[in-house]
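Pilot study result, target chain (246 residues):
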Amino acid sequence: MGRKFFVGGNWKMNGTKDSIKELVGFMQAGPLDSSVEIVCGAPSIYLEYTKNICGNNIGVAAQNCYKVKSGAFTGEISPAMLKDIGIEWVILGHSERRNVFHENDELIAEKVGHALDEGLKIIVCIGELLEEREAGKTTAVIFSQMEAVAKKIKDWTRIVIAYEPVWAIGTGKTATPAQAQEVHAELRKWLSEKISPEVSENTRIIYGGSVTAGNCKELAKETDIDGFLVGGASLKKDFIQIINAN
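Predicted structure:
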């Protein structure tokens, strides 16, 4: 298979210049698997600083952006602004944006479409709540989330899908490798049937949800898990082991 292993670090609302410098320092000390694509999501205020110290082997992503180029949207940043400072990636649809800030499928889809139009590459996050999983609605929820964004995607080569079961984010609970693989396989089947077999074969589907140095190797062995989107562990030296899990 030709899908390049992808590991994203979502730093969320964490960091100072000093701590980011330290974090990037231990990442650069590595060793880092050169066959893995690495992208770190820094807080917007530190994006340019992070980009300047990361070097060429670590990409930098914004954690969010808005659906239009400019305007009276206090506190927002646009894809054009991100491009202007050399940022190529953005994380959209993260469960915290959906469930804390109440962004719905339509808004996330509009953001994805505009970011693509502006030339960004996107980590699109999807995932179900605990009550949805317990009710047997996992695939219905994630397919609905996928249908919304798929309508806005013209270029799938710039999309990475991150499956993040909400019940496993920051809780210490993790989907078993078999549980994660089952959902990833369903997503790949959905892509094949709804988009195209080629898109299904080439699109990377990564897993996020309490990924650690302890469980990453077993998760990475699964056929349809093409990497990780890592939260808390991306702020620690354990992140090196996760990058090298493949």
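One observation from the pilot: The chain has eleven helices and eight strands. A full batch analysis is planned for the follow-on phase.
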